[in-house]
């Protein structure tokens, strides 16, 4: 989202990497080293050379190639839906009829409909978020506005359930994220209320990434497998894949135990999708703040087949933790009123409460990173 967002991300990434080195003595890999074949790195598929695509935040695979979007960009030429061939060359673009706020993810329906998630909100100040729906063959997406029932959230991930219902996954901050779904059918001329339908606690991770421990506790993208039997959430560090045996995506995310695919040291990995055959996970990073000449590359990771991860245990709540307006979204217990008001939609699931202590640690750690960054500039 504009120059301020890009500069902030760049500074945070540099500070996080340097602090990781100071605290652990580890060598933080450069983005180029990771792509070139560092242990666990993805295999390059193709390189995106179009100069308009430097902030790719959403990716889906199609039968003929890929579809991508930038996140909120000041440059009008970048505010489009880009269709790529299998070599990552742009072959078609579709513009928005009005200006989007912060496009952060993509999803593709079983009929080929493209959903663009205009759900980013770094300042948590938006009264509504939006989805752009592009039907197969259409040259104009349709806008659907939605509103949270409790407060604004920053979100960067979108899923579709078995019925094609959109699920917004909040970004989180300490490993706990919320799932929101439209409470009624989407209509182009109306603002649809969202309902809280679940809460997900990510497994613990130690995977190296530019944002250190903060990058392991946020969700920056999501995708459904072509057959609908698996879904994946990604952080800046890892991909968490859940089985969906009966089509209930919410139940899979809230009660399932994921398999983990490390995505080590991707420059700023915010996108993930499945290959069309479902055998691989595909990712791509932003490149706007990387060294000159760096271009985004789609990377391929085999889908995991090993044992599921050990889930992160719920963390005790710490009363009185002061939320930050600048850092990651504070993770709190699921709001009582939305949960109670949507018991029919959510069933009788019990959601884990993982908030205070983990959030406080993440926020204090991020504050340390920012203080270190300010001190380093003096």
SSE blueprint:
Blueprint: H1 2-24, H2 31-35, E1 43-47, E2 56-61, E3 65-70, E4 80-85, E5 90-95, E6 103-108, E7 114-118, E8 129-134, E9 142-147, E10 155-160, E11 166-170, E12 176-182, E13 191-201, E14 221-224, E15 230-234, E16 238-243, H3 249-255, E17 259-262, E18 269-274, E19 280-285, E20 297-302, H4 336-341, H5 343-346, H6 356-377
Parallel strand pairs: 9-13
Antiparallel strand pairs: 1-20, 2-3, 3-4, 4-5, 6-7, 7-8, 8-9, 10-11, 11-12, 12-13, 14-15, 15-16, 16-17, 18-19, 19-20
Polypeptide structure, described:
Helix 1 (2-24) crosses helix 6. The protein is 18% helix and 31% strand. With 378 residues, it is of the alpha+beta class. It has one domain (2-377): 6 Propeller (Neuraminidase). The model is unreliable at 1-39, 311-364 and 366-378 (pLDDT under 50). The radius of gyration is 19 Å and the shape is globular.
Write down the overall geometry: globular
Instruction: State the helical fraction.
Output: 10-25%
Which CATH first-tier class would you pick?
Answer: Mainly Beta
Write out the strand line-up for the largest beta sheet, numbering strands in chain order: 6-7-8-9-13-12-11-10
Radius of gyration: 19 Å
Unreliable stretches (pLDDT < 50, length at least 5) are 1-39, 311-364, 366-378
Distance between the ends: 27 Å
The chain-level structural class is alpha+beta
How many strands, which pairing sense, and closed or not: the largest β-sheet?
8 strands, mixed
Average pLDDT metric: 78
- What fold name goes in the CATH topology slot? Neuraminidase
Number of helices: 6
Please tally the β strands and state the result: 20
Question: What string gives the helices and strands in order?
Answer: HHEEEEEEEEEEEEEEEEHEEEEHHH
What is the domain tally? Answer: 1
What is the second-level CATH architecture?
6 Propeller
- Beta-strand portion reads 25-35%
